[in-house]
Amino acid sequence: MTAAQIYQRPFGELLRHWREHRRLSQLELSIQAEISTRHLSFLETGRARPSRDMVLHISEHLEIPLRERNHLLLSAGYAPAYTESPLDSPQMTAVCETIRRLLSAHEPYPAVVVDRGWNLVDANAAIGLIAEDVDPDLLTNVLRASLHPEGLAPRIVNLGEWRAHLLGRLRRQISLTGDAELGELYAELHGYPCDQPEPEIELPGPGDIMVPLRLKHSSGRELSFFSIVATFGTPLDITVAELAIESFYPADPGTADFLRDAVPDRTVS
What we know:
Blueprint: H1 3-8, H2 11-21, H3 26-33, H4 37-45, H5 52-61, H6 66-75, H7 93-106, E1 111-114, E2 120-123, H8 142-147, H9 159-177, H10 180-190, E3 213-216, E4 222-230, H11 238-241, E5 244-250, H12 253-262
Antiparallel strand pairs: 1-2, 1-5, 3-4, 4-5
Helix pairs in contact: 2-4, 9-10
């Protein structure tokens, strides 16, 4: 669905869409948001017009992303509340500097920054240890680079397991945001070939505590990583809210030693 189509939908229709998307009844939402079921029903049917504060209030209780909150405001006849600042704008200087410090401090371990669509925003130098020989065109999108047959996929030892993990994360993101473009990305990725079984449910094997990324390196060794995803905790700008920093850590001593040797000037505690 295009932005123009979203803006043309009445507020009540969008509100009902998000309530049903969150699998809430009118009664459940009215209790959570502390408004009457009657008033909520009137809002959904168009018999009542919401105030600006009411749109934001309900959006908060439905945990609607900032971008979609703006859509709701526009559909109700109000100006957007949340800005979307380019990363190269002056007000984003502090954010970009913070990201660069985090990326640099994480070396010699790899780290990337992605936007809502998993497009690569920034990365540290160590990511080259993972992404060696990957087509630069594929590297513009992290998920595409990971699962494409001309990307990392042929070097991922546990491709079926890692692919199922990434697609599961993407499904959960689609469920949260309702983003049609992410749905298209999911369909594309799901169509990529995979010659390994893909678990429907992630269950640990003996001694497993998380899903690792096991990767064949050109040196002939196998590198093993786990990752941590961080987001900004108090975003009031759409761009900031949609950024995610994924930091990779060695999952075994051999990988840690290899990374330290690859960037000898770094001291890792």
